[in-house]
């Protein structure tokens, strides 16, 4: 499941919208984890694991959200954690 790989431009447009929505909040619901966070995490997980470090840095708020939620067992389950660089690698 996730956003289809061949839909590259729509995928990045969707990630931009979600990234913007998270720019001023911790979770999709604001400050509390909601069902929307659980659903979105599951839908985007596979897509997000395929992004490069540079692409993840383009979506800094979304990356922060993923990094936070994957620390919770109810979200990550038996999936491998997404790797994020602790240092900014690219300057945009």
Q: Can you tag this structure with a few keywords?
A:
Glutathione S-transferase Yfyf (Class Pi), Chain A, domain 2, 0% strand, 92 residues, mainly alpha, 5 helices
Topology:
Elements: H1 8-21, H2 35-49, H3 53-58, H4 60-69, H5 73-76
Helix pairs in contact: 1-4
Descriptive account of the structure:
The protein has 92 residues and is an all-alpha fold. It has one domain (9-76): Glutathione S-transferase Yfyf (Class Pi), Chain A, domain 2. It is 53% helix and 0% strand. Helix 1 crosses helix 4 (60-69). The radius of gyration is 13 Å and the shape is globular. The chain starts with 7 loop residues before the first helix and ends in a 16-residue tail after the last helix.
Describe the structure concisely.
The chain is mainly alpha-helical. It has helices at about 10-20, 35-50, 55-60, 60-70, 75.
Question: What is the gyration radius calculated from CA atoms?
Answer: 13 Å
- End-to-end separation: 30 Å
**Number of beta strands:** 0
How much strand?
under 5%
> Under CATH, the topology is which?
Glutathione S-transferase Yfyf (Class Pi), Chain A, domain 2
Major pleated sheet: none
For the residues shown, what is the average pLDDT?
Answer: 86
List low-confidence stretches: none
CATH 2nd-level architecture? Up-down Bundle
């Amino acid at each position: 499941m996730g956003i289809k790989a061949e839909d590259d431009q729509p995928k990045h447009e969707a990630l931009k919208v979600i990234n913007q929505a998270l720019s001023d909040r911790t979770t999709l619901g604001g400050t509390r984890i909601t069902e929307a966070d659980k659903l979105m995490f599951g839908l985007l997980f596979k897509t997000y694991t395929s992004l490069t470090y540079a692409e993840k840095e383009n979506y800094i708020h979304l990356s922060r959200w993923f990094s936070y939620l994957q620390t919770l067992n109810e979200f990550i389950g038996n999936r491998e954690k997404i790797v994020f660089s602790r240092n900014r690698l690219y300057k945009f």
